[in-house]
Amino acid sequence: MELINGNAIAQTVLDELKAEVEKIAASGLVPHIVVLRVGNDPASISYVNKKEKTAQSIGMRSSVRLFPETISQAELENEIDALNADKSVHGILIQSPLPAHINETEIFNRVLPEKDVDGFSTANIGRLVQELPDAFAACTPAGILELLERSGVATAGKHAVIVGRSQIVGKPVSQLLLSRKSNATVTICHSHTEDLAAVTRQADILIAAIGRPQFITRDMVKPGAVVIDVGINRVPDATKKSGFRLVGDVDFENVAPICEKITPVPGGVGPMTVAMLMKNTLAACLRQNPAR
Ligand code: GUN
């Protein structure tokens, strides 16, 4: 069994990006991402802080805009319109989840496709399915593909089984694996899948993106499989100062010994998501400033 070290791989990606950011800084161009956060969800606060710190660590500009839970759809859309029109802003991300009274899909679609570094807009999802070069893929799925590639996991002809059909992970990662670059055979499972364990046991590459702690147990995994755990679940833990600890969607302790490779939680997929956001922001900046 080999651990896939997401922290180390993400740092390699960030080092590469930092070198590119330094190169373009000579021409006075600094990639700029703006993150919008609504309300005070603890996980969202932590994710947004991480994005800001990471951007700064590689010489990018990052701004965070905070809004109260009570912000209206129209007010939030106006904020996005202003950022769309602002030439100094290259990437825009609206941290999900948004309050229940906000139509999240309409908010994601309000962002100009060329600034949608999160890849959540209809335009970018369509471009991803069409395998167009200017598609921004959602960051967690893009991070999973980068992890597989940089860990030497071949995908062509392999059976990739994805558990979870979310817009953020399950659906886009299925498209990336299916693409002519990856050439995997893809199965997507969800809460209505009959005899789930019989399907997941066929996986050469198993991607767990359910959002339920330790849902994937040893009997659901084929010995020698590569397991990618996308879950970041907070479970109560009285021994921790914070009162919780993070566990994935995979029962790591019992599954890890039978895997060829597996990602830990934390330190697996999570750091890759942030690195890919930076990668998309740099690409957005370069595309918006072709003549330098
Ligand atoms: N919430 C959890 N993951 C993400 C993400 O990748 N992007 C945004 N915008 N919100 C999230």
Strand content: 15-25%
Count of the separate structural domains: 2
Query: Which oligomerization state do the chains in this entry correspond to?
Result: single chain
Distance between the termini: 47 Å
Q: Roughly how many Å is the radius of gyration?
A: 19 Å
Give every kind of bound small molecule, once each: guanine
- Put simply, the count of helices is 10
> Residue-averaged pLDDT, rounded?
98
CATH architecture of the largest domain: 3-Layer(aba) Sandwich
The major sheet is characterized as: 6 strands, parallel
**Low-pLDDT residue intervals, each spanning 5 or more residues:** none
Helix content: 25-40%
Task: Spell out the key features of this protein.
Rossmann fold, alpha/beta, globular, single chain, 39% helix, 2 domains, six-stranded parallel beta sheet, 292 residues, binds guanine, 10 helices, 16% strand, three-stranded parallel beta sheet
Give structural notes.
Helix content is 39%, strand content 16%. By secondary structure, it is of the alpha/beta class. It has 2 domains: 27-113, Leucine Dehydrogenase, chain A, domain 1 (Rossmann fold, 3-Layer(aba) Sandwich); 139-269, NAD(P)-binding Rossmann-like Domain (Rossmann fold). The strands form 3 sheets. A 6-stranded parallel β-sheet has the order 1-11-8-7-5-6. The longest helix is centred in the first third of the chain and has 20 residues, at 6-25. 44% of the residues are buried. The mean pLDDT is 98. Guanine (GUN) binds next to strand 4 and helix 6.
